[in-house]
């Protein structure tokens, strides 16, 4: 009987973007870190961002209840907003970013050096919520280096990174401004290809006009070259919820097969 | 809004440097928009540059030549290479792109009150300009036949050609200032008469008496003061009482002006002695000393005067000097120390003292004076208490350079204006002089140290033959390059980075937050346009947290709109969040095989 000591918390934007990546990540964690459970739920950050504080408290209590049910003492997150929100709201759990975990547990089998022969360079966009977390920046670069891809460092990176334009729920409130911010950020990159480690950032850079991938696309797929087919701007809502549902089924699948 | 948020906003309003003046502008007593015009010049917009200068200064070609430019001493560019050549740029646009036909001669409606201004130097002229612009009846009275005060009879023509003063001063006539020249207040008309017949008087008589030290022989034939010499030379280009071998005593720019003027009077031998032991310590600018050396003035630096030695006719024969070891004491007070053992004697037949000027008080006996002989006025209003008489410029000791004198003239004019309108004379007067800006910018040492522009000078051998201008100014291409060196000092780090702040603030977050605290209606889209990325805080030298304020505003708006965001677009988020927490899309799985605690009923 292996007790749950940690949970993988994929958040919402990643499952909406690509449920397969959720499945692969979880399978990988299960293999490398036996005792990893999973919770599919939102961390509540969007509610908080709108200023609905009471509702947020209520919703986060839901999240905490699930964590406590699993008696997990560590939460592994793949989203930087989840990272900050959970760090602030779950003081009894250790919150670990997937991007600092990977350098410790290694890349999935067979992925090392996969991008070495790729003919493209990925401009790397750092997420702004974790601008002060240099371990995450280092981890992401470690992953890119191990995979073998060339990266382009942007003028604004790490602690001085720029928001992709999605932060603070500006896109629905002021779409025209948000687009301008997304375009400006995307234009900073000389390369036509960008890699981000947040699905919302990925979408923003795609709106901004780039061929954009999530870091997990590189970790579990590829090799990506100029010949590859890149994902569209973003799934429409119906499709996104379909993806979320598929992610739920994937989790069920991975964590019932002993 | 919470107390804390209001405090955060107030703190930002008080401390934000977004609208703080650049170093150059704060150091300028007239607060000329240096950053503005220097950058226009850098962009080749020369016509706009001179127009901008003229908003604050009506003597740009004059100041472009002789201003002691405190702005350059404060210029941030000085920290990476040399400061901007601000005065040279001003002169460049004034000489080449100023069109007298375009000068603004408009005045406000005519007012009945009249003002007499004694003295046509920069202080009096600026006061006259400002009051006439407001429509008052202004008369300038000067005992000289020419306008300009020390600009005209102190500063030599080879530094400031007289036609430039005439042309620039003509604007005063054009807007209707009256002039009574050749009129000495004290003899031709008395102070009392003026106080009687005008509603206000501004005394701007400068400091026109040269100081003579009590050294043995100071009353010999052949001893003069620089102020008298320069005045006569300015008026006539001669000074016949002077011999052929001259010693000028003093280390300031008046001494240099006197020495160089004498060099231009036939072929005289000119010595200059000063206490300071090298050019760097002399009060005169280095370039002035260099130009004097080029023109053949012999410098005796680090020497003090012992005696002026005379013949039986009491005419100067020679001067004995002693070594000066130090000029100031540890506390910075003037306290020269000499080495009496080291002496030398120079054979000269004339001595010119240039060691300071004081107010020529003849005819001004009724006015109160300070211990040092300046006209005593209220520091804030420049008024002589209990009278309608004001004083400004060098006569009060508040200024020693032209642009300061102008700022004092402006200050006196403002007081007169307020007096006429029965307004509070003391309110809101803290920033009328040069001040230290609140701005603090860091500059990267990576800036390319492009050299500062230097203007072309006439050859020394040629220029000692006449009083024509020495400095020939700079060319278009030089001006463009020099203008490009400006660092455009300002903060606004946040606004320059953030598209949202750029869109929703006028200058900096300060103005937006002030509006909020004033209770003005704020479009809800503003707080909801913040990405909450904290980039502003990262870049703000004061680490202000703008996003916290926007977050608080969101909370307030939500409270006002019954728990919802006021933004239409956010409807989608409610759905997203509802579903994001719904069973359909949620799952909790333990590591398999599982051990899951039962779901508790009441958690919330
Ligand atoms: C030789 C010299 C060189 C200088 N060089 C520079 C320089 O390079 N840069 C710089 O910025 N500053 C320079 N200055 C200082 C600058 O010229 C003065 O600070 C400035 O002119 C003072 O202005 P003001 O209006 O107070 O007085 P002033 O310019 O002295 O004008 C006073 C006027 O009052 C008139 N007056 C006096 N008494 C009476 C009376 N009783 N009746 C009627 N009229 C009277 C005088 O004739 C004079 O026209 C220099 C000064 C001197 C002496
Ligand atoms: S660099 Fe430009 S803006 Fe800054 S102090 Fe100098 S002149 Fe003024
Ligand atoms: S960064 Fe912005 S808020 Fe901070 S001091 Fe500068 S202008 Fe003001």
Please write out the topology.
The complex is a heterodimer of chains A (258) and B (604).
Chain A: E1 6-9, H1 13-17, H2 19-32, E2 36-40, H3 45-50, H4 53-70, E3 74-77, H5 80-89, E4 94-97, H6 98-105, E5 121-124, H7 134-147, E6 150-153, H8 170-173, H9 175-187, E7 193-196, H10 199-207, E8 211-214, H11 215-220, H12 237-254
Parallel strand pairs in A: 1-2, 1-3, 3-4, 5-6, 5-7, 7-8
Helix pairs in contact in A: 2-12, 6-7, 9-10
Chain B: H1 3-15, H2 23-27, H3 34-42, H4 46-54, H5 60-66, H6 70-74, H7 86-97, E1 114-118, H8 122-133, E2 137-141, H9 150-153, H10 162-174, E3 178-180, H11 191-197, E4 200-203, E5 209-210, E6 223-225, H12 226-236, E7 245-249, H13 253-263, E8 269-274, H14 286-294, E9 298-301, E10 303-310, E11 316-328, E12 334-347, E13 350-353, E14 357-358, E15 389-391, H15 402-420, H16 460-463, H17 476-483, H18 493-497, H19 499-504, H20 509-517, H21 535-539, H22 546-560, H23 571-580, E16 587-589
Parallel strand pairs in B: 1-2, 1-4, 2-3, 4-15, 6-13, 7-8, 7-13, 8-9
Antiparallel strand pairs in B: 5-14, 10-11, 11-12
Helix pairs in contact in B: 1-20, 3-4, 3-7, 3-17, 4-7, 5-7, 8-15, 12-13
Bound molecules: flavin-adenine dinucleotide (FAD) and iron/sulfur cluster (2 copies).
